[in-house]
Recover the amino acids of this structure.
């Protein structure tokens, strides 16, 4: 059955791989803030059948984000971190799939500034400077 659908798209000349129209943006958030990333993808035929998000932390470990963190609409996908932690810092990218291709967005980076325990640096951090 899927083979017939693929042939129909090939014959009609409307085969289009998914594409990202608006990439996730970089953002800086403090711990406990809310962070959101979104990506908007083109209306293609065939329509994307799967949209997911990948997270790569600052140590280079990559993982797929949990479903409860993601929201997928007709042409847009969002990920929301309700209380940012230092471990959330890293790269976020959406992955869009249809029958013909898998497309990865450019990464949007979450930067989470923090200070260590030195008193002089705590004063600097209170003034909004990070190290």
């Amino acid at each position: 059955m899927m083979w017939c659908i693929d042939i129909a798209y090939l014959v009609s000349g409307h085969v289009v791989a998914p594409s990202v129209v608006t990439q996730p943006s970089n953002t800086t958030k403090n711990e406990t803030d809310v962070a959101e990333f979104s990506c908007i993808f083109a209306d293609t035929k065939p329509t994307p059948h799967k949209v997911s998000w990948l997270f790569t932390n600052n140590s280079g470990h990559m993982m797929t984000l949990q479903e409860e963190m993601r929201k997928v609409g007709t042409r847009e996908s969002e990920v929301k971190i309700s209380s940012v932690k230092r471990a959330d810092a890293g790269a976020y990218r959406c992955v869009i799939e249809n029958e013909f291709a898998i497309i990865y967005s450019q990464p949007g980076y979450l930067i989470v500034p923090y200070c260590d325990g030195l008193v002089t640096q705590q004063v600097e951090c209170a003034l909004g400077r990070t190290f």
Remarks:
- Residues 59 and 119 are 27 Å apart (CA to CA).
